[in-house]
Amino acid sequence: MRVAVLAESFLPHMNGVTGSVLQILRHLASEGHETLVIAPKAGDVEADLRGADLSGARTTMLRSVPLPSYPQVRVVFARAAKLAAHLREFRPDVIHLASPFVLGWQGVAAADALKVPVVAVYQTDVVAYAQKYGLPAATSIVESHVTRLHRRSTLTLVPSSASMSQLESLGIDRLRRWGRGVDAVRFDPALRSASWRQRVAPGETIIGYVGRLAPEKQVEDLAALHDLPGTRLVIVGDGPSRPALERALPRAVFLGHLSGDALGEAMASFDVFVHPGESETFGQTIQEALAAGVPVVATGTGGPVDLVRSSVDGWLYRPGDLADLRARVSDLIGDESKRRAFAAAARESVRERTWEALGRQLVGHYAEARMLRPIDDALFARAATRPAAPPAPATEGTPRWSRFVALGDSLTEGLCDTSRMPKGQYRGWADRLADLLAGAREARLPASAEPFRYANLAVRSRKIRDLLDEQLPRALEMAPDLVSVFMGANDLVSRGADPLILAKGLERAVVDLRSRGIDVLLVSIVLPRRPAAMIFARRVAVYNSEIRRIAASTGCMLLDLEAQPAISDLDMWADDKVHFRSKGHRFVAYRAAEALGVPYADELATLDSAFHDDDDPNPRGWVRRDAVPWLWRRLRGRTAGDGLSAKHADYVTISRRPATVSESPVVPDAGASPVRDRAESPGADPTRRVRP
Q1: pLDDT tens digits along 349-366
Q2: On the CB side of 332, how many CA atoms lie within 13 Å of its CA?
Q3: For the chain, N or C: smaller number of CB within 10 Å?
Q4: Local confidence band at 140 (pLDDT 50, 70, 90 cut-offs)
């Protein structure tokens, strides 16, 4: 795999972003992947890079300007076209944005031009930084920019639960947790040095801090600790706030920037590590302190909440409460046995957080992004959320359901699926799915098991109000254990349709079903890939986004057809231009089976398609055959479903096992599938037998 890393910060400026990028490069190189780093150029960067271990990565350094209030941070203003040219030459399989903001935005634009997936790593809370640097007027602008950037990314990786909540509140979707690894060799309790302690703070308990000396780190809060008896504040790091901090903390020891073994020795030699910053998305130096076996006192907000276990390996103090900060530190410096217990727990807490493990996770996120990019490119319109990648096909397991009821309109009724059916009768994706579920169940259960029963209450032209008033009450009477709901298309093409109001109606039905312990398979709406359908694309996108929300909040299973671009291809659609042809119904049935965990559904789909020759499309006569009758019904206030009842208003039994004489099986018509309907319940229409 070829990975292009666009980093807002890189060598020679060493910070959390740079450190993470270097670790990523090492892991990708060890796995045989090729990498390119594109980053801001600062001074004689070629000389700096020559002495650095870049793990074989190529580099492209772009002209940049220093940030006025923080010259170590540099900003690239490259044209997206120029950036795209560099990327086109490298031909990346995925673009990794490290703490994206300015260069990251240009990278997203270039990725869209090249149709390359983007994985954005949220590492810097620039919204909080804008506030800390005295730019409150820019906060809303920065927040809007961050939102747009991450919504355009294929995936966004967040390091902590606090970051996840923050970005969710901004309406950013496709968020995945991805933390940071820690070098447990460099940061090791064994590196604690008596000579270092004697040199830096002889005979005193050391309270340490490691990090940038900048306003967002709130190092000035450490003034609450500087006069604790018998202690010495030791500060490692550099930055624009150092002169002011040296004046505010005259007793503190400032060691400047340390790295490598020197940093490991200093960290392990602290007695307590303190981190006062309230805008940390993660807190890498906290994790390094824990690895070094040093108890941590940190603010109880943001990234530290996921790292520090209060009263186990450190303390979390109330944000902004400096008296609480002082009390927590005093508790540790005054109790050596507690410090030792916290230190042992601290080391143990990070034992599994290796960069190797995090690197494997990252490569997995790259693979997911590569699956998602074609789905995004095929979307007709974008709403609040985008589809997730389809589930991996199951290879084992037994479907647990024995009573399946399908609800919906003409698509679930099966219109235009005439494959191996008598004239005037239809199969449809739901009938096919029922057969798959029954077959998978019978293959793994004894003959004495409860038979599989199926009902299809769908009727053409039905809408959400019909779902609520007619189909749902009947379904509840039947006490199913699985219900599919594929409904809303007829509403969405109506004049003035509001997808949010329609989704609320759908949600009421789903909540009612779920409250009875019934499993629900929700199916999202899909459009054919033709210009006329684009009129409804925005409505459908919003409605489908709500379906995803409903599925997530109610614990439904979801067949998200927006994640299956092939279903929009015109060869999946019948000559009437609004229903699936047999090929489309087969496709939906097998994708639904995958969503429900039917083993080997993908392989069964391949086999099934090999035995079917669908009728050739016949678009001639569409106006007279389909459009005029539809228009005539509309003018008269009628629908195609008026006067029709459900094709399986009660349960039919589906079995592939040979029927006994006493069961009096219904003999299939010539050419029908070997599935038999047995013991059809009263009320079912015998002329509309299921032939899955």
Answers
A1: 998 899 999 999 999 999
A2: 33
A3: N
A4: confident
Distances (CA, A) of 292 to 191, 302, 628: 8, 22, 78
pTM: 0.86
How would you class 623 by CB atoms within 10 Å of its CB: exposed for 0-12, middle for 13-18, buried for 19 or more? exposed
Average pLDDT of 237-241? Answer: 93
Judge whether residue 592 has pLDDT over 60: yes
End-to-end CA distance of the chain: 43
Query: Beta-strand (E) ranges in 237-290?
Result: 253-256, 272-275
pLDDT of 614-659, one tens digit each?
A: 666 666 666 667 666 767 776 677 787 788 999 999 999 998 766 5
Domains of the chain plus CATH, in order, are 2-177 (3.40.50.2000), 189-349 (3.40.50.2000), 402-688 (3.40.50.1110)
Q: Do 564 and 524 form a contact (C-beta atoms < 8 A)? A: no
Two tokens, residue 639:
């629908």
Distance of alpha carbon 607 from alpha carbon 561, whole angstroms: 21
- Which structure tokens are listed for 251? 């007793």
Q: DSSP labels for 9-64? A: S-TTS-SHHHHHHHHHHHHHHHTT-EEEEEEE--SSHHHHHHTS--TT-EEEEE-E
Give the sign of the dihedral formed by CA 432, CA 434, CA 437, CA 441: negative
Q: Which distant-in-sequence residues (6+ apart) come within 8 Å of 445 by Cβ?
A: 398
Pick the closest to residue 573 from 562, 564, 560, 582 (CA basis). Answer: 582
CA-based nearest residue to 8, from 77, 87, 55, 69: 77
Q: Give φ, ψ of 273 to 5 degrees.
A: -105, 135
Q: Which two tokens stand for residue 89?
A: 């030459």
Mean pLDDT of 117-126: 94
Specify the pairing of strand 296-299 against strand 314-317: parallel
- Could you give the strand order of the β-sheet that contains 314-317, starting from the edge strand earlier in sequence? 253-256, 231-236, 205-210, 272-275, 296-299, 314-317
Q: Tokens representing 364? A: 């997995």
Assign 267 to helix, strand or coil: helix
